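Why do we bother with a discrete structure alphabet at all? Because it lets us treat a fold like text: something you can write down, compare, and reason about line by line. To make this less abstract, here is a complete entry for TrmH family RNA methyltransferase. Read it the way you would read a sentence in a foreign language you are learning: slowly, and without expecting to understand everything at once.
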Amino acid sequence: MGRLTLEAYAAADRHPVTLMLHNIRSMWNVGSMFRTADAAGIGEIILTGYTATPPRKEIEKTALGAQLTVPWRHFADPLEALSALKAEGRKVFGLEIAENSRSYSSLQPADYPLVLLVGNEVDGIGDELLAQCDGVLEIPQYGTKHSLNVAVAAGVALFECVRLFLREG
């Protein structure tokens, strides 16, 4: 299957995508997103607000060790995190069903490096944070439910971000 060793993965180039988790309630969701971030080969995870940080057994249960392979940082204040990420030259995209959102498959080469911001399982991304985003991406919904689990949505969007980057690269 071509799996990398821990040493090879640590030395490998990562895709210019950062996942930012804000006020995620479920530590199992946090762990799932670490695992997905590892599988997608993204650069790092940013944890903000009351999102739990490793080490926590609940995170480890679903991360399966990815909390050790994906670089991460914690900021109590999400606005401070966004400011730091933008100062590093990254564009920030919220993943949310919102007015003026665009398809998650519409990213262009100029959008990289990027930050994908996901919010709370119940409330999503607040207006204050959405206002700081360079854009808002939306995953089309075709059924009766108008949302996905945050970890599932992050996984769908992360792999699309990586696919689009590789297509252009």
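What the structure line is telling us, in plain words: The radius of gyration is 15 Å. The first strand starts at residue 15 and ends at 22.
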